[in-house]
Amino acid sequence: MPIFEYKCSKCDEQFDVMTSIAERDEQQACPSCEKGVGKRILSLFASPAGRTSGGLPGGGCSSGGGFT
Length: 68
Ligand SMILES: [Zn+2]
Prior knowledge:
The protein has strands at 3-8, 14-18, 28-29, 37-41.
């Protein structure tokens, strides 16, 4: 099941809920204050532009090796 992110309308707590896609738009009870309800927000890793930092880890100045 996918995990969706919610944000509480009362305490602004953000939390993840694993639920089915069919129920992703349901309001989820806040686990923090237990009074507010969380409304779904877009998770970062779901945005297409959020993971463009991929590449070579530290592949900048790796030539030579003459570090003192
Ligand atoms: Zn809350």
